[in-house]
Structures are given as C-alpha cells and as structure tokens.
Predict the structure of Penicillin-binding protein activator.
Amino acid sequence: MTRAYSLLSGLSRQALAVNATLRKPVRQVGVGALVLGGVFLAGCADDASGPSRSTATEAKPVAAHKVGVLLPLSGPNAALGRELLAGAQLALTQTAASPTDQAHLVVDVHDTAAGAGAAANAAVQAGDGILLGPLTSGETSAAAPTAVAAGVPMLAFTSDVGQARSGVWVMGITPEDQVQALVEQARREGRQHFAALLPDNPLGRAMGGGLQAACHDQGLPAPDIIYHTGTATSIAESLRQLSAYESRAAAARQATSIAGEGGAAKAEELPSDLAAALGGSGASPQPASTAGATAQAPAQSAALGKPPFDALLLGDTGLNLKTIMTALADTQVAAPAVRIMGPGLWAPFSSKLGNIRGAWYAAPDPAFRQTFVSRFVARNQHAPKPLADLSYDAASVARAAAQGTDTGFQRDVLTRHSGFPGVDGRFYLLPDGRVRRALAIFEVQGAGVPARILALAPVSG
C-alpha cells in the first residue's frame, strides 16, 4: 500500500486529512522504551516483513523532493507505524525557520506489513530520493540492499548497529552508543581498566561489543568480559572469576595471618614488669575460644584488595540485577575503587538502586524532549511514544538535506560536522552508518531519589 502527498513547510492540518485515519490514540510508553529499545526492535515483528526477498531495482529520476516512508500501516504493528508516521509528519510540516527554509516535499508512504523488501522496491521505482524506516532489524536487512544498490539513503529506526553501513543509518539509540558515552566519561574520571559482567543475550552481546570498540577507540586496554547464563550460580561464579576473588581472598588471609603472628611476637616480648603484672608468663593470655581465630577467619571478615579493574559494566535489570548486587557485596566490588555502569534501561527505576549508589548509566536528557511532546500533543491529542522521536529526527534530516536544491537531496548534508538538533539532543550521522547522540550521564542516588545528571557525555565518532 502506497500513499503519496505533497507537504509544504507550515502546511495546515487540513491538508493532511488524507492521513487523519492513521492518527489514532495509542498507549503512552515510558522513556525507558526508547533507551535500548532497538534491542527489542531487532527482534519484534520481524515476521511482518514476510518471506519476500528484495532485489536491486533501478531508481527512476527523482522528482521534486520525494521522501519515502517505510512503516507498518496494517497488521500487528500498525499502531506503532502510525505513531512513527505522525512523528515524521510533524517534522516535515513544521513552520519554516527562515524564508529560505522552504522545501517542496512529497511524502510517499509504503506499508511494510506485506514485506519491507517489496516496500523498498516500490519506493525506489517511484523515484523516492531518501527513505525513512523501516522499523525493525529484520526489515532493515531486507530493504537495505535495494536502497544501497539504487544509491538512495536510508534512515532506519532499528537500534541494531549491525545493520549500519555506508548509506544506511541506524537511528535508534544503540547499546554501543551508550557504552561509548560511559567509557568516555569514565576515562575522563581516570578509569583505565574496564570489565563487564553481561547477560548472554542480544543486549549483553551488543554491550560487550560496544565496550570492546570503545576501549579500542579510546586507546584503553582490552576489557575483560564474561557472559552469564542468568542463574544465581552462574552470576556468582562469573563475578568471582572476573574479580579475581580467590587470589584476593588468599592475599587477605595471608595478611591477616602475618598480622596475628606479629601480635603474638610482641606479646612474648613484653617488659618484665608488665609481664609480671599480667601473670608472670611473659605473654598475654588468650581465651581458648578465640585461639587461632585470626588465622582461620573467613575472607569475608577481611578487607580484600582491589579487583583487577576500576570500571565494571553491567547489562541486567530485574531479579538478575538484584542477584548481581548480592554478588558484588560478597566479592567486595564497590565504589570508590570500581565505577559501576549499566544500560539506560535503569532509568525508570533508578531511585530503587541504592545498593549500587554512584553507578552510572547513559540516556537522553528528558528536558530536551518537552518541546517536541508539547507540539505532538497539540497536533495529535495524545503524548507520543518514545520511538516517535526517531522518526521526527529522521524526517528533520531529510528536510535539511532538501534545502538549497530544487530536486533530490544533498547527500553531503547528511554527514555534516555540525550534526542535527534532535528531539533528545544533538546527533551526528557518521559515514559508516552509525549515529552518535549527545547522551547525558546519570548517577544513581537511590533511597527513592531519582538519578541526577552528572554530565553531558562528549560525542566521539
């Protein structure tokens, strides 16, 4: 299904009546759905793309500024597709900032429910000069070959960085982007040795890959990474191995034993007058119940040395995170010796993470989003889902690339050094298809207090 219509900057709502049926109210989702949301988009509804395979299709000459939008407008993801379409419409119809900021945009909407590859083919055949979407990782994989072969830029809404390549940008806030921001901030704090205890699932693997890349990019030693299976035993054993618990405990026992022997020697060498006052034996009496207790004291009663890392990345939430907190206490891995870091998925419940007070996570600053939310509500009569942020940002890029030319889109504008002002902060499209976002670093306060913004993470690419 394809719908095409013309949009001018500042166009009235009535001109969009053709899409009125697409803007039905949907349930609002918390900000955590945007942070790392692409991990779910990487898998959800990939079957909606169908079994069709895309084949390269020769693009027709581009007419005016045709923006192809690839979204599910029918089927199980139709509500989400309509929400993202509304976000794109808002960006493409906003009032011009200046008399020169006028672009004749023709929006060509293609339903991906019957197959993202077929939708991409239809867009290329129609002469669309830039593609916004599709939604999931699987759909992006099916649609990208057609776009790349035709030389048509694609701004996909997945957060699967594995789909990024020259000409195909991943607009979602990726685990890799969050980890890059955390490592950069930790490095500025003086942290040099990174490790990670991560779940053995797509999110954990993405965070692990991001940590390896971040350490390499920033000239740091390769990190130690262990993936656990989710059981309490796996988590405990993995953290003991990662933190070198056995050798630290042995060193603590040895130090305690030496200290005990030194105390006994000193007792035997008491001055004669003091020894006589204590009973004339020359040694301090020691109750039988405590004799040898120092030498046999468990490692937990002694302060262990620092683990072989000064920053630890975690990727769990829920019950597994609670289990990890217990393991951290048992192995004496804690601040200030170690900076704990985690995913932006911690944002919705950060006030309950008192056991790891001082931990960091990277996420958008919600203050940036307020203007977009107000404008979206005024037009659509409901608050936007976080994923609508991505379609608005992508459409803003298309609009910027259309300026200064009568037809087509200026491809060099896409990767301009100044980037673009996004819903959740400034973002930058890199030549290799990655997208870097100016995320904020949040510090956990716990005790019912929301996390505080520590800094705006520098953007590296």
